[in-house]
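Let us practice reading a record.
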Amino acid sequence: MLADVLHKLAADTQEDTQPYRPRPSSAGPERCLRQLVYHARNTPRERLAGRAITVMDDSSWHAELVKDWIRKSAFQMHSEEMVVQTPVGPGKIDGIITDLLGVDRLLELKALNHFGYERIAKGQWPLDYLTQCALYLVGVQKVNPSITECVLLLKNKNQSQYLELLLVYDAGCDRLTIKETIRSDGERSSPGFVLERVTASAVEKFQAVEAHRAAGTLPARPFEYGTTFPCGYCPYAETC
């Protein structure tokens, strides 16, 4: 009665694709450059499957649930959905949290399926998320220069586990460091993972998109033809 209707409803009522522009969420090294060029060239794209739309909608609601729990804690959350100017263009932050000592930190929330969460928990760091956080920190520092850290809070949608990555950004050398990780079971670690030239690389990525758009060319395919992920979820899969 409903199970065979809801995904079709999501597919039939999905919004049109937003016009291309450089975005912090698509600036990281894992995001396919070829896909960005297709988008920049206004290449016709396939409409998303209804299930894909509901999965993304589900993640958005999980983020709202996490915010609600944070509001019930001793942390103060403010500046939600504030637009900041990053090196690649405007972006909208999830918020800023203030701890009991009055220290402000950028907050970025992500809700993932079990397999994506486990990959990160085992040390396969999410380079796109890290890049997005660094870009947001640059934007936030234009408003509050004292904010140099970001809490990237990941939620396992299947099991409601949490993994917190405390990130530190050094604007002087454009370096982002994972200072500490904290799991919801209390386990902590200090991986010391460093991402160099993080915002400079993001700017260069979008410059490459513009160069391909102007020349009418495409970058090399970064994945073998027929790769399930991420190609199987790309709206330009057939065209590519």
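A brief commentary: DSSP finds six helices and ten strands in the chain.
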